[in-house]
Amino acid sequence: MNRTAPVCKLGHVQLATPDIDASLRFFRDLVGLDVVGEDDGRVYLRAWNEVDHHSLVLREGPTGVDHFALRASSAAHLDALAVDLRAHGIAVDEVAAGAELGQGDAIRFVSPQGHPWEVYWEMAKGRQDSHLLNQRGKAYLRGSSPMHLDHINIACVDPAAGEAFLADRLGFLRREYVQPTDGPVFASWMSVTSQIHDIAIAMDPPPSLRDGRLHHISYIHQDRSDVLRAGEIMRDAEVQIDLAPGKHGISQAFFLYVKDPGSGHRVELFAGGMHVFDPDWEPVRWDETNIETGMVWVGPDFLPGSGGPMDPTTPCLPEADPAGRPAAGVAATEAGR
Amino acid sequence: MNRTAPVCKLGHVQLATPDIDASLRFFRDLVGLDVVGEDDGRVYLRAWNEVDHHSLVLREGPTGVDHFALRASSAAHLDALAVDLRAHGIAVDEVAAGAELGQGDAIRFVSPQGHPWEVYWEMAKGRQDSHLLNQRGKAYLRGSSPMHLDHINIACVDPAAGEAFLADRLGFLRREYVQPTDGPVFASWMSVTSQIHDIAIAMDPPPSLRDGRLHHISYIHQDRSDVLRAGEIMRDAEVQIDLAPGKHGISQAFFLYVKDPGSGHRVELFAGGMHVFDPDWEPVRWDETNIETGMVWVGPDFLPGSGGPMDPTTPCLPEADPAGRPAAGVAATEAGR
Amino acid sequence: MNRTAPVCKLGHVQLATPDIDASLRFFRDLVGLDVVGEDDGRVYLRAWNEVDHHSLVLREGPTGVDHFALRASSAAHLDALAVDLRAHGIAVDEVAAGAELGQGDAIRFVSPQGHPWEVYWEMAKGRQDSHLLNQRGKAYLRGSSPMHLDHINIACVDPAAGEAFLADRLGFLRREYVQPTDGPVFASWMSVTSQIHDIAIAMDPPPSLRDGRLHHISYIHQDRSDVLRAGEIMRDAEVQIDLAPGKHGISQAFFLYVKDPGSGHRVELFAGGMHVFDPDWEPVRWDETNIETGMVWVGPDFLPGSGGPMDPTTPCLPEADPAGRPAAGVAATEAGR
Amino acid sequence: MNRTAPVCKLGHVQLATPDIDASLRFFRDLVGLDVVGEDDGRVYLRAWNEVDHHSLVLREGPTGVDHFALRASSAAHLDALAVDLRAHGIAVDEVAAGAELGQGDAIRFVSPQGHPWEVYWEMAKGRQDSHLLNQRGKAYLRGSSPMHLDHINIACVDPAAGEAFLADRLGFLRREYVQPTDGPVFASWMSVTSQIHDIAIAMDPPPSLRDGRLHHISYIHQDRSDVLRAGEIMRDAEVQIDLAPGKHGISQAFFLYVKDPGSGHRVELFAGGMHVFDPDWEPVRWDETNIETGMVWVGPDFLPGSGGPMDPTTPCLPEADPAGRPAAGVAATEAGR
């Protein structure tokens, strides 16, 4: 873990979807998240082993990402982060407590790579629905039934610059990365927790090659069998399976990638992964000699940029949605929401 | 398999429950069966990988079993069975097609051990809900989500006599049995299929020691992880878990025993088991030297008759006389339902 | 099950391998079979939940299959089968008891599709190594550790003719099959047991298009997790994985296909599958509208004949003529081994 | 995680065993650890997903624990820890680099609760045996095959005092604890990592009620199915299973407890568990109203101190073994109990 990071974990994601009913059917009935609240047309959901009030917010609108929300390491860290970001030329919006259910004061900003972030400190704890004291939701009522939101995988034009922003401003540490012998960093798996990654940032492959894209959000399950179960659920519900099942080399995650039929956002349903407990962890470098093993250790072949279903990514800030479109006036637009 | 048996498989079970709503919540929402029909206050359910229209019928009434239904090996076998039973002094009722949803002509009778049986040949196939052609229901929508009804475990005063009835009249073959060195048969696992058992019949342990009892009905799951999942579901729903999880030695089944909160009937949610493909299979005899291993190979200690939660069994015919044997008019009562 | 079939199950397979040490390392150390005997340079192996002495025999020689061995339904069935085969023009060799460890008198013949068969009745039971009375070997000592040999998948030029031979001479029943709307049968899954298949027979895809080929032999595991475990074992041992993991639609088997590095024979390590208990089971027909679902329900894309790693098959009789059909003297050759 | 802790993780454990061959058979052949080195009669082992050279050292001698080894957070932290311990009256021995294979300079001390600790900073990385770059050992070659050493569970007379030592001197944070309404702390689950516990410390139950005891060491597996697999392996090897399988409420770990036949030390083979990423995590308090749920959420009943097989614990520092006793200052401390 990064003992000096301004943020302590990935908390939640707010997604915009053109068909919120279809997205709800997907996330609630097939993935198995619980709906825990609604306001202003937004629906809040959580997985069963999460501490916080919610990990996913759905909003109706053109496919996009309103924000990836990180929890600050303390109230003081939150304040210091705003100062630091502004000192580095990032426009920061302040969002009052209550702007989202359960959430205290927060800040929002768009990274140089075009990704919209939110950072908060205070968050209501989730309702105690389980009879098990250290678990808030009931497990396995419906769907694949993940434990908690785990990580996001985002794309941009220059991953090295994106990695530097995440490291220098937010305290994320590089755990594994892909860099060919004579080339630039292609992708990086980073964390502020002991998880092998809270965020992966990779090159948006040609022909897209754009900033501000989301590759997938990921929920972790208790067991690999839950992911296999997800495969049968998704197939029979005619949900698009992009790649599955298999075990990544990088991150050692057992994966199933599907697309939310309502929004087109890709979601990874996974189990396993690794943890890093050594402060002097040496990031694992993958290159052209072993990238195939890194991408998939056991399972279907997959190389990014090969034109398959894993390639296209969704924009965070859709062009077609003036309200959601960053440009010169990103901060202003953001504030106007 | 028994190549000359009058019956080919266990088809379904009709249970009476004093609280049909509670039983429905259990079987539909927690076990995950699909409701496929209703008539005359009865609710029909099935598991996702069953061929037939239903495997469970719930009827409101004092806790009991209306019948265990076996499928005949052919229409001719059904006719011959009725003749054979009557020739052996068993009262046989004839039930017209349509008395149960999807079912053709059937016969009903009570065995000398006080268990109510139904045998049918024609049965409607289940509705094709899955996009997978050889699977009728959708898997894993809710609950532990078993594949199909697997077996029943019934109790009586004299298991050897009960075994003889099942063998001589219905064609069941002994696969495994418990018999102490100098004692009578205590329990027997029998089948007409390749399954290690379609029916187990055992001594109803003291102080009950009555005929006509049900120990449990059992649904089989695709994977042992489904049974573990069931444990968490049942625990958080405050369903009584009698014993679990573990792997039996006898039958090699991975088990979880719970009680339907509506009726008190015990249900085994299991995975695994064995199959017998050799016509000269020598029944495995368990005795006092290895019965503990036979009862549980890995898991919680359990010996029948030890007074734990696994002991009490539900009566099949609640109106039966105090000795546990159905009165003379049982068949008539049955027919009059 | 087929109540009148001359044979009752698939018993074992004898494979020829050019590198018996490499094949032993694969089957013993990575798959986890136990070596239970040796004679004349042959090595006998078994899986932990098999009744018989062995399920696999390895012999050093050019890659091939010496025989697929079926157990007769009785001694009388064995005798009658020899008469029937000869009456239909099949050359039958008689093999004396003791020609293979533990085996009684047997017959051998080559089918019109060029596959070498053996049928026996008497077979020694396996040594009791487990402390669990109904299980002969110890489970999970090494490797993926399957329960038992499950089925074989063989290829030929005319699957309809091959299916007819298996049905008419040996009693196998069609359970599922692939037949395009206006085309011939492409593949058939058949069984004499309740298993959805003991044998699959399919067209050897172009450009091979030869008779007498083996697509794979298959061992079944207790749990899908064992198959996932196999994937990691095989990958790190540099064993070629042809396709995995995934769940077939047809047969509903959870699969991993690998190649024995010693012989090139393909082996399926699988879990799950289905059972057929109804005597009037209507074979499931798959055609061009659903064959993709039939091939793989969840997992990597695969269509036979598409030129991928799943296509090539090994010859059973390497000395066969260029057309792939064994010459007239094949039976003699077989007898002379 | 504790951002200011002197130590960063549990690194390894050195156990004394009266029958090192039996212990090796257990840890190597049945658990599946790899032997990675030997010196001075000690054998070093590791699990497949560990970074460090070893996680277990076996030494022949009366049953005991030579040390629980923690990795310091840095070289400077190691030095500061020695100073701090001495300032608080703890005798600290300095151990030169090379005293154990792969290890740099280290310190050793006995806690006021009688547990022997070692803290080191430098440790050789494990040999790269796997073809997967971020995994050093090959997975699943033998036995249940855990990923890594996970935690220890130790016992003493006064858990509150033991908890205070671990918190104040070593930086462990309380994550969950048991404290009856009007009673003292009975047990505490603590960590310096994000794991729900790296160390649990509990009351040594009557009639033992002694300091300096080990309840169990624990290895974590990739999947719950690995733990089920362990159950069958251990049962057939006649290894004593103390409790299993089941899921704890506290820690949410899926467990199997067995005894090393060579030493009598208890080992937990488990999967699952929880992680804590919030710096303001409020420790979960369990009391007399929910302790049964806390002990076992799904599985066999278990309450500590109830006299079952889970009660007895092994001593860390056997009085009868001079070779296993720490150096002069430690022995004095020990003697002073």
Automatic annotation (TrEMBL), chains A, B, C, D:
Repeat among keywords: yes
Molecular function (Gene Ontology), one example: catechol 2,3-dioxygenase activity
Keyword field contains Disulfide bond: no
Signal peptide stretch: none
Coiled-coil boundaries: none
Similarity comment text for this entry: Belongs to the extradiol ring-cleavage dioxygenase family.
Subunit structure, as described in the record: Homotetramer.
Name of the protein: Catechol 23-dioxygenase
Organism: Patulibacter medicamentivorans
Organism placement in taxonomy: Bacteria, Bacillati, Actinomycetota, Thermoleophilia, Solirubrobacterales
